[in-house]
Structure formats: structure tokens, C-alpha cells
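Ticket reopened. Same input as before:
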Amino acid sequence: MSNHQERLYGQVNSRFADHLQIRPARRAVVLTMIATIAGVALAFLMLEKGFWMLAAAAVPLGVSMVLLNLSLRGIFELRDDMLDEYQISVRNNAYKTAYGLTLVFLVVVATVAAGMELQRQAAFAVAVFAFFMSALAPRMLLAWNLEDDSGRQ
Amino acid sequence: MGGNKEIEFYNRLKLLRAERSISRKELAEAVGVHPQTIGYIERRQYNLSLALAFRLAAFFGLSLDAVFSPEPFELLGNDVLSGHGVA
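Engineering reply: fixed in the latest deploy. New output:
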């Protein structure tokens, strides 16, 4: 087990992470994630005002990523041998479900964007939004849907 | 293709843990899973693998069918009563 993976395992199973692993918290993290992705896309749209906007948008995106991973006990980050069969099963199901949804989402975005005859910068912003949404779809989908672990003891 | 419908398994894990005062964490560590996973199995929200089912049964020193069943288990009270010829 590498040091990085050990550290990550400790973090995702910490007391702090416990608070993020209830459904309302996970859903709040997903909504925050979508908002920050939209923020990054917006920053690309206004790139001519300076690169600092991009940097400012990247920080909340990074924080949201960390929170999202903590809320899912790092099951998308940890190696298989550090997960149990339930965690691997829900992760694989999330990839499978997200794959279909992502394809539909990308087709819709591409169709709408093509019909709008966007300028280069706007098209780039839409592409950035679509990229992050697609890349993070399995995580967001699982964080949104995962059953709560009621009756902890 | 038909015939692939998942069977839901009933289990006595919670009862066995309570009987022996074993926490979910202790059981999880003994069989190599996360404590949350024990909770999902107990509440029948996850159909575990055969390998894990054997590990759990072995931990309690019981046969597989004493811990897991495709049919609901008899209530413990019924078992006790019939065992004493009362029912």
C-alpha cells in the first residue's frame, strides 16, 4: 500500500468524513460541485478579463472534489484491494449507469451547442462544462443516490 | 434472458451480533469489510458474495444455512417453544 493511498484511506474514514456521508450532506456536495463546474465554465467564458478568474474558479472546484471524494469514502480513488466487495459493486454500478446518462447528456449538449452557432470562447466554455460534468458523473450520481447507513453502532 | 432474477437473502447477523455482544466494527474487521457493509447486509440492502457469506458464518462458528436463508427465518420465540414441545 503506497503512502498516498494509506493517507487517503485514513482521511476518508475519519470522523470529519463521517459527517459528509449522510445523504443530505452528499446531495449538498453534489449541488456545490455542479455550481463550481458552472463557475469554471463561466470563468473560461470571461477569460479575456484575466486568468485570475480561472484560478479563482479552480479553487472551489478542487475543494468540491475533495468533499465529494470524502462523502463517498474515496471509493473512486482507492485501489480495489483497499475496498470491500460492496464498495466495488456500488462503484461499478455507478460507472455503468453514468456511462449511458453521460452519452445522452453529451449528445444533447452537442446538438444544442451546434444549433446556437456559438463563438469560439463560448463553445470552449460549454466544452469545459460538459467535460467536467461527464468526468464526475459517476461520483455525483452515486453521491446523490447512495442509501444512508442507518443504525450505525 | 430470463431466469437471472436476484434472490434476496435473509440473515441472522444482527441477532447473532447482539447475542454475542459484537459490534459491527469488530465483525467487519474480522471478515475484512467496512463496518457500513455489515449494516447494508443486515438490512438486506446488499446481496453479499458466497465467499463473504462463508467468512461470516465461520466467524460465528455456524453453518451457512444457520446464518443465511432465501426464506425468512422462523421467529426465535417459535423455535424455542417448539423445542420445548410447548407449541
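The two ends of chain A are 28 Å apart (CA to CA). Chain A has one domain: 3-145. Please confirm and we'll close it.
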